[in-house]
Please model this.
Amino acid sequence: MILSRTPYRLSFFGGGTDYPAWYRTEGGAVLSTTIDKYCHLSVRYLPPFFPNQHRIVWSYVETVSTIAEILHPAVREGLRLLGFDDSAGLDIHHQGDLPARTGMGSSSSFCVGLLKALTALRGRMIGRHELALRAIELEQVRLREPVGSQDQVAAAYGGLNLIEFLRGGDIRVEPVTVPPARIEELQARLMLFYTGSTRLAAEVAGDVVANLSAKAPVLRRLRALVDRALAVLHGAGSLDDFGRLLHESWGAKRELSPRVPSPVVEAVYRKAMKAGALGGKLCGAGTSGFMVFYVPPKRQAAVVRELSGCLHVPFRFESEGSRIIYYGPPSDVPRRAAEPRRTAHAAG
Model:
């Protein structure tokens, strides 16, 4: 059995400039970090005496005869991408620390963790950059999702990074080199809240991708905010300007799609700012889900009270990225012919 653990991410600045249709001609950059909330995946070869060929456990329990019948699109296409076939049964289980479709990059973390675990199942180690590129291929090419390229890179690498998307398509990752005390100070001022709703970010992302040329001035402003935020982190002054830049980015991101943000999110943002937050953002490309705020320590209790209808989720930065936390190599690969089709049953 193989167990992979892949972090979710918080993206601070530059979101929107990581769409290939934009950065391959204009270039882009994102400032983001991964946090200590994870997607866990276990994979193993399914012993041949079970009645089904493959078993996939996520929001549903799927027992199927062939890879082609797997309902979960990322699992089905991920197996095809890596060249798996039906000669050996597979058992794949997913568990996440945070709900899906809430803006924390969960879909990309799933893809990264799945490819990491399946590669390990075959006895091979995969480097972080190759892993990120494979996950991008899976989501953008195989699944044809209108997603950017930042989430896959963040999940594969881990840490607080400047991720640059170069003209021509190359991707470069540079860790943000800031004294540990400065990083601790930043962490202490960031508060994560769950608004209690989920959405498909692809719907909003589709709006953005379809109008990239019309949104060029906004995207250039969002890219410039990355450099300004890095200057704040590397400076010796107050970090409060980081929060104010988040507020500036909030205004700019609202111009990317008429769906962003929803009235509920707007109300949450207003309440947080009234209680003492200096800035914040909706995580991800959707209209609801998780929100992060920059709040001076003396105002944090007031923000928690004001946002009593939302769940406050304490977190820490993490720096490991996707990794194998348990490796039990199979002594032999069970092989058998595919059996008659099984149906998918909803999980209890």
Summary: Residues 337-348 have pLDDT under 50 and may be disordered. The longest helix spans residues 216-234.
